[in-house]
Amino acid sequence: MADYVGAIDQGTTSTRFIVFSRSGQIVATAQNEHEQIYPQPGWVEHNPAEIWARTQEVIAEAMQSKGLTARDLAAVGITNQRETTVVWNRKTGQAVYNAIVWQDTRVSSYVDELAKSGGQDRLRADTGLPLATYFSGLKIRWILENVPGVRALAEVGEVLFGNIDTLLIWNLTGGLNGGVHITDVTNASRTQLMNLETLAWDEEILRLFGIPAAMLPGIASSSEVYGHVAAGPLAGAPLGGDLGDQQAALVGQACFEPGQAKNTYGTGCFLLMNTGLKPVQSKFGLLTTVAYQFGKQPAHYALEGSVAITGALVQWLRDNLNLIRNSTEIETLARQVEDNGGVYFVPAFSGLFAPYWKTSARGAICGLTRYVTKAHIARAALEATAFQTREVVEAMEKDSGIQLDALRTDGGMVDNELLMQFQADILDRPVVRPAIKETTALGAMYAAGLAVGYFRDLDDLRANWSVDKIWKPSMSAEKRERMYRTWTKAVTRTFEWVEDEGAV
C-alpha cells in the first residue's frame, strides 16, 4: 500500500491540493486563488475552465515540491464548494455559461414564484431544504431558460450538469474520452433535486423545476472508487472519495456519533450536527442534509446551519474597501480598540441564510457615530461571525434536543484568536480547535483512504483527532445578553430591504 493519500479541496475562493500521511499530517500542499466575478449586484460567478486549470496547477506544484509520483498515493479524494452550478457540453468539454456560485441570488424570482403555492417549505419534507436562492436546482433552471439552445441539448443529454466535484471527476477521469459523470450523496443533497429517503433524483421535483434527468450525474456513496485519474501527475491513482466541503469537515473532525457537531469558519460559516441514520426535519430554520455515506453502509444525516458571509466579509473589507492589505491584518486592526464602539455589522450581502432565510435582506452597518474608527468596523466584522454562529447553535439545540458541551471549530478563521475568544464568550461555551486544522481536505482524504483499505475503519480516523487549543468564556452574562440583544435588533433592520425584483 502506498504511503500517502491526496485531497483536492476546491473552495469558493481558491483550490488546494494536499498530500496527507496516515496520521493526518501534511506532507505536501499547494494553493491557488481564482477570480470572483460579479456581473450584477447579487450575481456571483466563477470561470469553470479557470478552476480546472488551477486544480491541475496545484496538483503539479504539490507533487513536484516533494518529488512525489502517483505511485506514492493510495488514493485521491475530492471536496468542493457546494451548490455552485456548472453546465457543460459533453462533446466539447466547454461550459455553456460561467459557474453560478452558491452565494448568487439571481433566482430569487423563481423562489417567490414557487413559494406562492405551498410556501417556502413545500419541498422540505422530501429534500430537507427550504426554497432559497442557495441551492443548485433553480440555478440549473436559470441556465436552461437564459442560455439559448441549452435546453434542447439538455433534453438529449448533450449537456451535463454538475457541482464542482462532478466537473473535476469528469475531467480527471478523461473528460471527452470517457470521463465519469457522477456525484456523491452529500453534494446531491444540496441540489434540492434529491429525495433524502431514497437518495435518488426526485422525478416530481425535476418536473416542477423543468430539469431534464438526462443531464444529471449518477449518485454514488461518499467513499468508493469512482474511476482512475487519466493523465498528469496523478495518472493511474484511484479517485475514491467525494464529499461536499462542510460534510468533509464533519468527517475530518471525526463527528461519527449522533450529537457530535463542528463549525467551519470559511467564506461562510457552516455548523453541522450528526443526527444518525434518520433525517431530522428542522422546525427552527436549519437544513436537513446527508452527512456522509461510506460504501454500502447506510447514509448518515445531519442538521446544518448555513451562514452565507463570514470570511467573505473580511475579504470584502480587503478587496472592496481596502481597509486591510491581507486577511490576517483584520485581527491586528480589531485589537486596536477594546470593543465594537456600538457598531454591529450584518453581512446580508446574499440575503440571510439560517435561521432566517430572508432572500430580500441586505447588508447593514448599524450604530455608527463620529466616534467610530475603521478598527471598530473591523471588530464588528469579526463579531458578526460569532453572533451568526450563536443564532445557528440555538436553533440546532432546539431542533435536536441536544445541548452542545463545546463547539469544535475548523477553517481559515480559527487562527484568529480574538474571534475564537469572542465566540466562546457570546456562546457561553468552550470553543475547541483541533490539532489538524485542515479538516475539510482531511475528510476527503479519509473517505478516499477508506475506499481503498488504507484505513481499516472509523476507529482509525477517531484516533487521529486531538485538541490544539480551547477557549473558555470569560464575558459576564449581562454583557453577553445585552450585545446579543443589540445584534438581533440590527439583524431585523435588514429584513425586506429588496422590495421588488428590480431593486438592488
Distance between the termini: 56 Å
Strand order of the largest sheet: 17-18-16-15-21-22-23
What proportion of the residues is helical, as a percent range?
25-40%
Mean pLDDT: 93
Rg to the nearest angstrom? 22 Å
Low-pLDDT residue intervals, each spanning 5 or more residues: none
* Structural class determined from secondary elements: alpha+beta
Biggest sheet features: 7 strands, mixed
Topology:
Elements: E1 4-10, E2 14-20, E3 26-33, E4 45-46, H1 48-65, E5 73-80, E6 86-89, E7 99-100, H2 108-115, H3 124-127, H4 136-146, H5 150-155, E8 159-162, H6 164-172, E9 182-184, H7 185-188, E10 194-195, E11 200-201, H8 203-209, E12 218-220, E13 223-228, E14 238-244, H9 245-252, E15 261-265, E16 269-276, E17 287-292, E18 300-307, H10 311-319, H11 329-334, E19 344-346, E20 364-366, H12 374-400, E21 407-410, H13 417-427, E22 431-434, H14 439-451, H15 458-462, E23 467-471, H16 477-492
Parallel strand pairs: 1-5, 5-14, 9-12, 15-21, 21-22
Antiparallel strand pairs: 1-2, 2-3, 4-7, 6-8, 10-11, 13-14, 15-16, 16-18, 17-18, 19-20, 22-23
Keywords:
504 residues; alpha+beta; seven-stranded mixed sheet; six-stranded mixed sheet; 23 strands; 32% helix
